[in-house]
Design brief:
Layout: E1 7-13, E2 16-23, E3 26-31, E4 37-43, E5 48-49, H1 59-64, E6 73-74, E7 79-81, E8 84-87, E9 90-93, E10 103-105, E11 115-121, E12 126-134, H2 139-143, E13 148-157, E14 160-169, E15 175-176, E16 180-181, E17 185-187, E18 198-202, E19 204-210, E20 216-221, H3 225-231, E21 243-248, E22 256-261, E23 266-271, E24 278-282, E25 289-296, H4 309-312, E26 316-317, E27 322-331
Antiparallel strand pairs: 1-2, 2-3, 3-4, 4-5, 6-16, 7-10, 8-9, 11-12, 12-13, 13-14, 14-27, 15-26, 17-25, 18-22, 19-20, 19-21, 21-24, 22-23, 23-27, 24-25
Organism: Paenibacillus taihuensis
InterPro entries: Aldose_1/G6P_1-epimerase (IPR008183), Gal_mutarotase_sf_dom (IPR011013), GH-type_carb-bd (IPR014718)
Pfam family, one: Aldose_epim
Length: 332
Amino acid sequence: MSDQANQAFQGTYQGEPAVWLKFGKYEAALLPEVGGNLIAFRDTSKGWQLLHEPTMDEMESFKARPFIHGIPVLIPPNRFEDGKFPWNGRTYQFPVNEPSTGNHLHGFVHSETWTVDDFGTTATESYVVVSLKVDEQSAVYTYLPHKFTVKLRYAISEDGLHQHVLVRNDGDDVMPCLFAFHTSVNAPFIPGSSAKDYRLKLTIGDRWAMSERMLPTGEYQPLTENEQLMKGEGVYPFFESLDNHYTAVAQNGRNRMELTDTKNGATLVYDVGTSYKQWMIWNNGATEGFFCPEPQVNLVNAPKSDLPADQIGLFSLAPGEIWEETGRLYVK
């Protein structure tokens, strides 16, 4: 492996400013001006695109609603009833941006411009660090009035793509720390394979019952036969339309998705760490091509739940405190 092949540099992706990483057989691209989205992760030796990337024609719609390509960052994630977010004796009002449910959806950082703090190559990896600092001058502060910093570090190496997220409370009051990645993976990710060749495993526990407004009722629903397969030996990812919310229950010490191409015997692993108490899974109305296994710290609409905070991932950060978690995408 020559040193020349391993690089980290600023360039463009479909005309958008990007930081590119190359190491061995892998390459990745991050878009600092579109929410710090890790938009591409590829095995160039085999021509595999592991994440769902936008075409040039899709770039404008992607920038307008950057949820179904790459790895968007959601703070706070998913839906909040009537846009209301009760916290610490106050109620924040978020915009109701999903008229069909009357809810707020997906938070405020997915379209912000993040700062490129560092990028480079070492003997073992190529990496990039980006951050978002929220204070009174930030648009995010309008709705989430806390001072905080979010840092993302992505690195590629012979072990695939490593993902590290850190949230630090820079203010003088306790803040909510609700977080998710709206990760979008290709199925198929191998040229010449069919989605029918793919089997999905996900470390789920129970499925939350959801209201007509897509908000959890606090009750669980029994898993179907296909969901039991998803939890066990694997299932075709598009067996029905999925927009489901599950508890996360680690298996063999890990909280992860596994997507296997049975034709080629390759498995994409997305190991996300046990701070993520919930999974969302969305498969675009059972349309083959891609789906989103979304590791989520918190239950949807968590501030309105009476369940124990640790159970539903309703995390808080005191002044000066840090929350962090890691994940990894790799092929075995």
